[in-house]
């Protein structure tokens, strides 16, 4: 029972973690809560439904096209909407409202095209199941956990070991100074949005396959939970966001498994508030000094 | 544009009076029940947006879960009037007080954190409220909601639609007056100082934490007031009225109107309430157009409709200029 809960929690948690990493990267660069991320999370599985289930493409090409299209959507949103708002030198909350607008457009566009009913997504990755003691891990769960971990490892390498990553981190610290050091700030931010949307797209598609269905109401709870995961782990820290996502996924599963599923979301949020009070910089975040 | 603003700044009192007059004659000119209903909902949203502007505009904390506080006011009023038979004025007051208490409860442990974390806290709080509203079946009837909330009445007299409109209009005007007085008081100056730089403010003898808690309590009280009125007006509430989506609509109204500008909140709330009604004939694509318009608004005026305009500042500039001419 315990082992089974851990496996289930890990599955949900790693997908939250994957979305949270992308969200956290954008948040640390711009201090912008990108609420369109939740919409990207459901946009990708719908694309897969369209290409794979309706048009009969192979799964792999459908998946790749869906993920790239979602990434492009994120990059376009930044290039044509958020860059303009940034150039006006407005507060970031205006950009936040714009991302809310984008998510409204995407979600209702999906409803207009696909209808508001739940769409089923056939499971393409069927590789049996593994028995670990008394617990069962399905092939799907294994694929989700492994894929998420691999992608997050790649993202960590990008953020901490490449030139692109150091450009991102320098913008997070000080955009003006970065520009003077020759960083093309707007391009790096657009790339960050691309990466964030791609990770949301991959997570969304995997979760839709895990449950065998996708519907548009998912996006709110995902937005809220990834936001919470990113904060819990410490904004701007890739391993922190992973840890945050896994913790929230685990908590949710454990509360639902051992107590009541009615309060599973609430417990997660109470713990987040408690965490913020006692460890305001998140688990792995850096302490920010207060300066006048 | 500049002349327009200067004219406005010069005659601010008259402009306010004219706007108030328009609001007063609106139900007389447009007597249709539907239009009065839209007008009333506009004013409810104006009230919420004003309260959120106190938090977001004047204190600089983006309130992401405002529907949670709005919901506490609504549920307090609904439960007190259906289960205990309290009158309208009592539940209105109780809704505001209860919400302010919850605000203080949330604020006391968290307002020492930096603003972005408080934003998360309000968001999480909204979700917690919704979970409680859905699951405390013995009190809130869960997702079935609370029906048959008594209509607004005073001394046994049940208000018709148009009088409910005037009730909320009076509440809005009172709220604007009170907030305006607070902003121009010692407390308000303290709040603005804390917003600009809390360390500098504390060096000047302003206790940032105390001021933040007070502001949070005031802002949540008005949100609760709006919620209590809304419950009585609509007559039926369930947890789906107070979701995170609703919160995002509230914050959009406030930001689109212009932060730190009370008239901005009025305009933002009215436009985002009326817009979906105008777009109603578009049926399915209504929400898409709404989203597109929201984006366009942010592209054209990211600081909000009236954001960045400070009438007092414009007046000061004008008087400095005319004063300078006199000396020559």
Detailed description of the structure:
Chain A has eleven helices and four strands. Chain A has helices at residues 2-30, 36-54, 59-87, 92-114, 139-161, 163-173, 175-180, 185-211, 218-233, 238-258, 264-278; strands at 119-120, 129-132, 135-138, 213-214. In chain A, helix 2 packs across helix 8 and helix 5 (139-161) crosses helix 6 (163-173). The N and C termini of chain A lie far apart (53 Å). The mean pLDDT of chain A is 85. In chain B, strand 1 and strand 2 form a beta hairpin. Chain B has helices spanning 2-10, 12-29, 33-58, 66-83, 88-110, 115-135, 137-140, 161-183, 186-196, 198-203, 208-234, 244-257, 262-278, 286-300, 311-327; strands at residues 153-154, 157-158. The model of chain B has no long low-confidence stretch (mean pLDDT 84). In chain B, helix 3 packs across helix 12 (244-257) and helix 4 (66-83) packs across helix 11. By secondary structure, chain B is an all-alpha fold. Chain B is globular and about 65 Å long. Chain B has 15 helices and two strands. Helices cover 76% and strands 1% of the residues of chain B.
